[in-house]
Amino acid sequence: MRTLGILTLSGLAVILGACGSDSPAVNKVAIEKSVGDVEKAILKGLNDKDAAAVVSNYTADAVLMTPGMAPMKGQESMTAGLKALVADPNFKIDFASDRVEVSDSGDMAATRGNYTLTVSDPSTKQPINDKGSYVTVFRKQKEGAWKAVLDINSSEVPPTPPPAPKAAAKKKAAKKGKKH
User: Fold this and answer.
1) Which of 53, 91, 125, 151 has the least C-beta neighbours within 10 A?
2) Which range of residues forms the domain containing residue 152?
């Protein structure tokens, strides 16, 4: 009887020990490094003016939102939008994250950081500078790689007001002239 009790307790201990750990521990430091490497690859692709290299770091259903452009949904839209952006002769960008958050499950991560950007003013073709902040959400892929799924940039620079329409300015001037 004593042997049966010891075997029962031993068996119970093995079963409870196996149930105590649902999943392996998440190595958040390694994930932060992996996500940082993806950001570096995106920056390199942008600075190399290689839209395809940039987009390869995003999921097929990713969305990229950047000031002055409609949201780019999916890799095809992102490739077209980024090709136009990097074709700008004044295009320059730099960014770096200052915070990385990793989910407890280890399958999602997000970065937050700041960027500086130089592009051409559409009307004058002169360089204009922008700066702002961004948040990028990453999702771990089935094969273990990390890819961006949502990338949102927010400019700190107020938009330039549009020029006054010429016809409206002429009408205003004409009305002022009639009053005197």
Assistant:
1) 125
2) 24-156
Pairing relationship of beta strands 146-155 and 58-65 according to DSSP bridges: parallel
- Whether 136 is in a domain gets the answer yes
Beta carbons of 30 and 54 less than 8 angstroms apart: no
Beta bridge partners of 63: 73, 150
| C-alpha dist (Å) from residue 115 to 44, 47, 112, 129, 152 | 14, 13, 10, 11, 12
Residues across the chain:
180
How many domains are there within the chain? 1
Which H or E run includes 9? helix 2-19
162 part of a folded domain: no
Whether 131 maps to a domain, the answer reads: yes
Three-state secondary-structure class, residue 84: helix
In the structure, what pLDDT confidence band is assigned to residue 7 with cuts at 50, 70 and 90?
very low
Calculate the alpha carbon distances from 55 to 9, 14, 113, 115, 139 in Å: 56, 48, 19, 18, 15
Count CB atoms within 10 A of the CB of residue 46. 21
Residue 3 inside a domain? The answer is no
Residues 21-44: tens digit of each pLDDT: 566 799 999 999 999 999 999 999
